[in-house]
Each structure stands twice: as C-alpha cells, then as structure tokens.
Amino acid sequence: KMLKTPFRPNEVLGLNPANPIHNEMKIKLKQAERTCILHLNNLNLDAVPPQTFLLTRLLRLDLSFNNFVKIPGDIGKLAMLQFLWLNDNPLREIPIELALCKKLKEVDLRNTYVLQL
Question: Which of 1, 4, 34, 114 registers the highest number of CB atoms within 10 A of its CB?
C-alpha cells in the first residue's frame, strides 16, 4: 500500500524561510523590481512564484532549467515582457494569455514538449 501525501510544489518550499532557496528567491524578486529582469533558472521549481506576476514592468524573465509543466495564465499580466526563457522544462503547453504580452520578442522553448503556439 502506498502512502498518500499532499502535493507540495517546490515553489512553496522555495518560499519557506527554512529552505535555503527562500532567501535566494526573495533577493532575486526584490532586485527585479529595480532591474526589470528576473532569473529564476535552475531552482528546481515546479510552480512560478505568484509574486512574479506582480512585477508588471518585467522586460526579461528566465524560468529555464526548472520543472514547469504549465505556466499560469497570469503571464499575460507582464505586458512589458520582451524575453521569456522557458527552455529545458517539461512544459506541455503555453497559455493563450501569453498573446497579451505584445512586446514579446523572444520565447525560448528549446527542450520542452510544446509542439505548437
């Protein structure tokens, strides 16, 4: 018999002060308010931190080399976004709301399972 435990996304663990990734993410999110650039790559995340979508002035967002299967529709709130790097994630689809990012110049989907936009 298998034990069933509730699913806890790594993103939640990343926001847990007891987890070392917490401070790293907190610093990066704070810096992004000033620089409009956010790199959350290689953090073993499987959910995008909700605070990301409050950074509406973001120009560049790097979510590469994580464990994202899906990107929330809230990505459409990042209307100023020009560069989105999602490469090397087990992504299966891109939300339709990405079309709201009218300034988008580049979306990197290398090494994902996304077949069409």
Answer: 114
